[in-house]
Design brief:
two-stranded antiparallel ribbon; alpha+beta; 101 residues; 16% strand
Length: 101
């Protein structure tokens, strides 16, 4: 929720409504974690589902191009090792670059 809240542009009035929703969801998540039981998570799920549907609808109407046109395409993921979590990133444009044995 912090990432969503941090990405809001408050030049648009809708951002104030969204920040209230994000704050509510975050509070319910914190309560659920600290109390070790679900606290209004069903209502949080409904809010998030509704927002998802709204964002998908808005994205269909967006005719603007990409923000970064010459950006690299990077594939990233996480792998689990024994006792550790490893992050792996592969830059699709640089296959074969780097050290080779």
């Amino acid at each position: 929720m912090c990432e969503l809240r941090g990405s809001l542009n408050f030049e648009y009035p809708v951002s104030y409504r969204l920040v209230s929703l994000y704050r509510y969801i975050n509070e319910q998540l914190v309560k659920s974690i600290t109390r070790k039981k679900d606290v209004n998570l069903d209502s949080c799920e409904r809010v998030i589902s509704s927002l998802k549907d709204s964002f998908e609808e808005v994205s269909k109407q967006d005719t603007s191009g990409p923000v970064i046109e010459s950006g690299q395409q990077v594939y990233a993921g996480l792998t689990y090792g024994k006792g550790s979590l490893n992050e792996v990133a592969i830059d699709a444009g640089t296959i074969g670059r780097g050290f080779q044995a």
